[in-house]
Amino acid sequence: MEGIAKLSGLFRESRSTVVFTGAGVSTESGLPDFRSRTGLWQGVDPMALASIEAWRRRPNEFFTFYRQRLSGLQGARPNHAHLILARLEAAGMVRAILTQNIDGLHQEAGHRSVIELHGSLRQALCLACDRRYASEILLENDLPSCKACGKPLKPDVVLFGEALPAAAWDLAVRESCSCDLFVVVGSSLAVSPANHLPALALEHGSKLAIVNLERTHLDPQASVVVSSPAGEVFIELSRELLSEATA
Ligand code: NAD
Fold first, then answer.
1. pTM tops 0.85, yes or no
2. Is ligand 1 within 6 A of the CB of residue 31?
3. 21-51: per-residue pLDDT in tens?
4. 118 is annotated as an active-site residue
5. Interior CA angle at 230 toward 225 and 235, to 5°?
6. 240 in ligand 1 pocket by Cβ < 6 Å?
């Protein structure tokens, strides 16, 4: 596979590798991404559905969309990319995952250091009293409400129109400024401000590697671009990097 030898060389040389993941790392687990031809946004206006405005003003439409995503999540399992990234972390070859994903699959794969930039669909949040619940509560009623204060619940994810969680963002900035290899896996790098992190890493002297099926605006600045499915890429990488551990 083109680029694998170069990518494994970068992992070997690096003393501090941070991996930035997007929806593309989970498509092989059966979860559609947003912007591919088969993605969730095809024929849909994101601002009309996944926005704080939609949650407030069009809750029925909002929850129909999110309940579909929640049911999809229930059958989803980590794929080779999630599992091998967790093994690379255990082997000391990945320091942290910065993920835009809300599916919790890195944690399910056993990854310990996961920074969730866009929250988690595994939880529901009451904005009024700050209580959190397991997300099953969102499936109980058409318009789910907080058991403590009765106010409407929302999925604990960052919607369009909301700020990123400050603590997660600060940590992600720190990781990006202090790594020497920043690896993008399965992201179009189209969503701001998360997509500023790879540029920040480059500015601070890190090398950049990109594993993504489609081109991104940062491809020209990457030391290597691997345009193959992430699961296959990480199986190949594990042969190169983890063969001693598995022998
Ligand atoms: P995106 O849809 O904009 O981009 C995904 C990229 O992944 C595309 O460029 C596509 O070519 C690539 N891709 C798809 N399958 C791949 C594979 N098997 N191997 C390698 N690359 C593959 O997604 P994004 O950049 O993450 O940004 C958009 C938003 O998507 C984020 O805010 C995130 O919260 C949200 N999202 C998350 C999930 C999830 O949690 N699983 C699912 C859909 C969307």
1. yes
2. yes
3. 999 999 999 998 876 666 666 666 766 788 9
4. yes
5. 105
6. no
